[in-house]
Amino acid sequence: MKVLIVSQREVAELLPMSECMDAMADVFRMLARGEAQLPLRQVLHLPGGKGAFAVMPAVLGGEAQSTALGVKALTVMPGNHGTGYDSHQGAVLLFEGVHGSLQAILDASAVTAIRTAAVSGVATRALAREDAGDLAILGTGVQADTHLEAMIAARPLRRIRAWSRGAEHVRAFASRAAKRHGVEVEPARSAREAVVGADLVCTVTSAREPVLQAGWVGAGAHVNAVGASVATARELDSDTVVRARVFVDRRESALAEAGELVIPRGEGRIGEDHIKGELGEVLLGRRPGRLSPADLTVFKSLGLAVEDVAAARLVHARALARVLGTWVELGGERLPNP
Fold first, then answer.
1. With 294 labelled, which of 69, 107, 110, 272 sits at a CA distance of 20 to 30 A?
2. Does domain 2-111+305-329 have CATH number 3.30.1780.10?
3. Is the pLDDT of residue 148 over 60?
4. What are 43's strand-pairing partners?
5. What does the alpha-carbon distance between residue 237 and residue 289 come to, in Å, rounded to a whole number?
6. Where are the domains of the chain?
7. What is the pLDDT of residues 43-102, one digit of tens each?
8. Do residues 240 and 234 touch, judged by C-beta distance below 8 A?
9. CATH fourth-level superfamily of 129-300
């Protein structure tokens, strides 16, 4: 049986941001309607604290003919920042639901980079003010690149500022942004300088301690908190979370794994009811998003396996239509008796 291999470059070509945002909005509605299954991801921490190995399975749909099954297996290596290696590496395996056959193997770095930013774009459309357009990006790695693209798709931007701990990284990010999108990115000397006055903020750092303080964020802003993905790390301080209307990709995941919520809960400053809704519930109109132009809204993104499966399904269909990817004989058929 033949399986389609889709490379990192091909995934990026086949998964344009605007179409990925539409697919992510659809899959979050499915999740809210109970049309998807996923457990908490399993994470093994590597010796010496150098990184983690994670496995994330999910099933989309109910009828066998329309069901998509998939799993992402990847390593997360924060120490790769500044090297020639992505911090997230691995593969997404896509299966069909009739016979359970493996259909495709996709590069996980590109899938993760694009679908994560696409979800932030969907959240921004749902939660940010209509006139929001002053963007601050904290962090200048891979996720900064894709988040800039998603924010350009989500709102007309009038100003963009960026900050990173390394000034050279900010300059490189600004150069890439000018070449790819024809936009000017203003380097900020501090996170505070980047954030003050912004009404859209994306935190996409590898920080384990807060890089965003409540006093910097103005009324009416929307924050996408993306970089931290374990219970012991966070990019937003407790005051920001307490002050905000907080929305998540999935409650169960956020309450177990999101340091932005786990830590202030442990301090006794918030309860489970501080989460105002899941993104899919907002998209379906089951939960209100922004109630006032003055609200501070926060979307805490952890990344879900349903996002990977939905993205993989879209890439697979587009690869078949455009005759891209590489076919390999991998098996799966019953061998004849000798």
1. 272
2. yes
3. yes
4. 54
5. 22
6. 2-111+305-329, 129-300
7. 998 998 888 899 999 999 866 557 899 999 999 888 787 788 888 899 999 999 888 999
8. no
9. NAD(P)-binding Rossmann-like Domain (3.40.50.720)
